[in-house]
Amino acid sequence: MRMARRIGLPVLVAFLLLAPTSSFGAGFALFEHGARAVGLGGAFGATADDPTAIYYNPAGIAFLPGTQLAAGVYFITESSTFHGADPYPGQGYSVDLKKQIFFPVHIYLTGELTPDLHWGVGVYTPFGLGTWWPDDYAGKYITRRVDLKVFNLNPTLSYKLTEHLALAAGIDYFYSGLNLTRSLGAIYPYTLQVVEVGQVHLYTDYKGGLGWNVGLLGKLDNGFSIGVTYRSNVKIDYTGKASFTQYATGRDDFDAIVRTQIPFTTKPTAKTSIKFPDETRFALAWHGSKLGIEADMVRMGWSSFKNLPIELVGYPALSETRPENYQDSSCYRLGVEYKASPSLAWQFGVLDDKTPVPTESVSPLLPDAERKGASIGASISLSPKTRLDLSYMYLRFKDRSTEGMNYDVYEGSYKTTAHLFGFTVVHKF
Known about the structure:
The chain contains 5 helices and 22 strands. The chain is mainly beta.
């Protein structure tokens, strides 16, 4: 019993998961907000000629006649395998991320106030994250499961300055909730090894954050067009609860000491905040009678995410501010569209997406890396007023090693791929 008392609070909570920083890392931004645009590799900011323009470039809705609706969903699956390295969890260890299917939806509605002033409103998922590892894997003290959901309500107005130039401005209202689960570890005094003493589940209420966006679309001579958009940072202050569950270790004296150090019988208030990155898009397109080509560069301002404070109200020893030091990153997108007939068009796209996550922050919370992708899509006219867009994208992540620098001393490499399939229905009233 005296040996257990000498362990003390710092050692008992050394591996406590109350700082899920990397779960907010790079790679959780979503760009799948319209099937035609995804078929073009996400290069749509200078085309922007259907209601999905509310996200890709809201200035484009100034050129849309009448009232139009676009709605759809994307199905996203990801596979990730971790291969361990020394000193922990060691060479030869490997584990697979559990399979999940995510289905972010998108809905857009546009209309006219005057021939030159158009309105639009969109609902879509600009950010999201879900990782789920087996309960008994070696990284369970870092994370077992993460679920981040972000919804954006985006009303906008677009004004046609001339027959070839439009300007838009809108509001981004984020509505977000977060759930995190991991195991609790402590040094067992009788073996001097880490033993699982319980788990913690951190869950927040849904909270809102406000931002803004602007867009410019210019239609030049000879089929060329340019687009520029900017979306501001959005900060969300999360408030929730931390729920602790104790696991028996087989030694009642040790378990009693653990109960004095960790609030298993209460649910402390937990607070954190995240500043989602701003986004700047530059786009150039050319469209002929049958062929269209567009290239986009998207700059994400991840450098706003320097650290993450986690506060457990009333438990300062369990609170911390964890450094992240993310860097701004860029994504390059190229798309080609071929109109095979009046009722069928094909899209093809490629992308190269850089990661802003420094090596020391790569972890099972989000095993992010530079990725390359390829996509294909089709737009099919179902009637003179209705079109069905379908597309598929394959993403291949560059193998990412922690290079012996991991913040949590969980060393190894990640191999990740993702598949994205979805559809959008566009209807003109």
